Structure formats: structure tokens, C-alpha cells
Amino acid sequence: MLVFLKLGGSLITDKTRPYTPRPDKLDELAGQIASAIQGEPDLQLVLGHGSGSFGHQAASQFDTHRGVSGPEAWRGFAEVWYQASALNRLVIESLRRASLPAVTISPLANITAHDGKVSTWDLSPLQRALVRGLLPVVHGDVVFDEVRGGTILSTEDLFERLARELRPGRILLAGLEAGVWEEFPARGSLLPEITPGDFPRQAPGLGAATGADVTGGMRAKVTQMLGLVEQVSGLEVLIFSGEEPGNVRRALSGENPGTRLHC
Q1: Cα(263)–Cα(259) distance, integer angstroms
Q2: Domain containing 89: what range?
């Protein structure tokens, strides 16, 4: 089965402190991924990760996601790319220490956007990586945009396009939260599942992100993923805690330690 896994920026960095990675957590997550792949020989995995306190911090400063125009804004564009790439390097180093053959598929080098959405993306390098048993890695990044000049695409934006093209069975979104809470930030009751029909009733209690985040909070994430499960037959999305030891491995092995989104 083809599975997409995102390691959220809030999980792999401290989003309340600028440019602060969590190296021990990165190594632990890489070990879980390696263990799951070893135990599931038929598993094909595309890994994505957020930018956390790296890319989001710079992006908030320069408002890059709204568009890029003028020398100062383009310098900001380059700074966001640098910070997102710096975090990506740390992720790749952890995966390498876990003996995983990870290769980054750079969004900036491969994608053109149109008004904040993926317009063109040559997927052949990513597909060839999968065929050859490599672990392709994508991440939230700046891209050139035909309307805005430049913008930012989140990992969910990338997964949305990839899902339509590659038709995965599952998308796993690992963050700090145990799943989607009925009331946030009160965290009174965890929603075990969400469907498009139930979502309008559940949506008012969903919260935004904590710390710097230019790509939206939980409500935006759930809305985007529900739209995708409606479009991709058989797809389910799991939002769960990667902070809980072993949860990433369990999710990759088919368990549901969080909130399941499905039709």
C-alpha cells in the first residue's frame, strides 16, 4: 500500500521558539519509520514534514504566502527557502542515521503554483524514487507562483496534489495533538472520526494553530483533508499524536491512534 506520512512542524521543532529543532525527537521518529518499513515489506512511503519554527518564522516576518513583489520581499522568499531547507537537512540526517535511503524532492525546484495552488509538478523523480526503493521526502516550501510571484505551499498542499495523482490508501498527519478535539484548546473530548456529513456540526469547536503558522490551524487542515477524501476513492486520513511513543510505527502498520477522516 502507498502511504503518505507528514511529520508536523509542531512535532519536529519547538514552534514557540524561533529556529529550534527537536533532534532527539527526529531520531526517535526516524527509528519508528525504519521499524515500520522493515515490518511491512509491501509498504510504499512518501514522507513529508512541516517547517515549524524555521520556515513559518521567516514567512510570518515577510508575509511570503500572500505573494512576493519587490527586492525586500524576494530576499524574504530566499530566507524562507533557506530556513525550510535547513530543517529538511536535519530531517534527512536523522533518516540517514536510521539507515533509510531518503532523498529530498525539492518543491521549489519541481513545482510552479497558480494563485497559491500547485499548477505544474513533474512527478517523475518522485515516482522513480518509489520504484527504486528510496524514501522520497517533500516539505513545506516557497515556490514561484504565476499570479503572486511567489508563495508558500504546505505539506498538505503537496499531499493534496500527490493524492490525486498517485492514489494512496492512507494519509497520516502526525503532530502534537492526540487527534482532533471537539473543543480546542479545552481538549475535553477527542473525536474518533470525522466525515464530510458530520463536519459542519463539529467545525465550530476546532482551533487554530499555536505558535507561528502561516498555513492555517486544525480547522483548515481538516477542511482540506475532508475535501480530499471525497475526491479520492477509498482514501482515509489519520490525524494523531506523533509525540506518543510508538504511534508513528502503529499508524504505519495500519492502526488508528487518533482521529480518522473518511467518507
Answers
A1: 13
A2: 2-261
